[in-house]
Design brief:
The chain has 207 residues and is α/β, with parallel strands linked by helices. It has 8 helices and 11 strands.
Length: 207
Amino acid sequence: MNRILLLEDDPVLQRSLAKLLAKEGFDVDCAFDANEAVDLSYENSYDLYLFDINVPVQSGDSLLKELRDSGDRTPAIIITALIDIDSVKRGFDAGADDYIKKPFEIDELIIRVKSKIKQSMVKVGKFSVDFENSKVYQDGIELALGGVLKDIFLHLAKAYPNYLSKYELLELLGNSSDGALRVNISKLKKQLGIDIENKRGVGYKII
């Protein structure tokens, strides 16, 4: 299930948006101020940020800029009553992917939300995997994996939670030896901090 962080200080609007997004199949966490949003963004991995601008402690666009500066590339939509061109510019300069002016039609919001959440993004344990673009994310930050290790992880991720034959993995190494495969699996486990199980005669899987 795709997860959304909603930063909105109007309790009535927050409840309404959270309920409507939940009906569309999204898992929604809510924050009333920037501090709550920061804590939630560090504690959880999200597929989309929905940030109002005029919220307590710190503006939503300023918070988004800090998240972007920290390497967080989670898609973000600004929702605000500020409609002047300077506010719109600040929102996009902060790293917003979209900007919706209040009041808005809920159907429009849902359309924009769905367009920003990549349907090719799949959760594999603590990771988000974009198979279309061969990218791996953790907490919204793209991970730098070498070519071979990325290929191994992506193939294991496609098979997740099932086993992948060692012969398919050996093909990624140019039909190299079992020893070479074990070395690369060990490197992958160490770099990503994950467990990969090897079942004799069956193959490997992420656990």
